[in-house]
Amino acid sequence: MSRRKTSRAALRLLVYLFLTTVAIITLVPLVYAFFASFKPSAEILTSGSQLFPTTWTLDNYVRAWEKGGFSQYLLNSVVVAAGVVGIDIFASSMLGYLLARRAVPFHRTIFAVMSFTLFVGVGTATLYPRLEIAQILGVDNLLGVILVELSGIGIIHVFLIRAFCESLPIELEEAGRLDGLGLFGVYSRLALPLMRPILATTGVLAFQEAWNNFQIPYVFTISDQELRTLVVGVFALRSTSEGTQAYDLMLAGAMLIVVPIVILFFVFQRFFIQGMTEGSVKG
Q1: pTM metric for this prediction
Q2: 283 has a pLDDT exceeding 50
């Protein structure tokens, strides 16, 4: 074996060791929380370092569902996530396509302003004014949560879709125009079906962001517990009769939050990877 091949093999081994270490560090807390969610509270407090439960129980999930009012919180989270994903896919795909084809006036200015907003990151600083505006407009509810979350995640999705659309063949769209299609017809009937990989990617990202978001739902639902999402509901478990010792309930609630994300990722994994790689080519 030549010296160059030996060096490549050693470098590849180091890369695999590094990636394996990162994967273990990332997965161990999740695996520990999964098994701990099946432990009784006393076992969590006395045998916290033990990975597998000595006594398996589903009581944590039953009590979290009943005490935390998780049936209503789950419905609220589904409403918020579905609203964010649906509006985000429609708005981001349309704006990303228009920017890619330079089909909107002042497209360079719009792109520059969006880039500035993305890197400045004024989300937290503008949260209170946005809450005030929502209260004035009468949408300080789940609709307000959807609209405010959209304003924070849509920009990066527009960038991903814009980069993806720039890699699409322009000849197909020109043929569509010769057949009489207008701008919206070309977008909806020709370009949109070709965007499926990147739309799956942005859809998963939007769902993950909306599902896990804590700050915005927490601020918007302080005065109305019935509007809490799952993440806010898990945090509220701290105020149950067990107080801050309710690790069993919080771990079970956390698993109820994680499971939908994991399922969604595995369902759309193929499109997710394809959209990320193709969308980043010219990003």
Answers
A1: 0.76
A2: no
Q: Alpha-carbon distance 238 to 234, whole Å?
A: 8
Smallest CA-to-CA distance from 202 within 156, 260, 269 is with 156
Judged by DSSP in three states, 187 sits in: helix
208: nearest Cα among 162, 265, 254, 280: 265
- For 92-105, what is each residue's pLDDT tens digit? 999 999 998 888 88
Report whether pLDDT(275) > 70: no
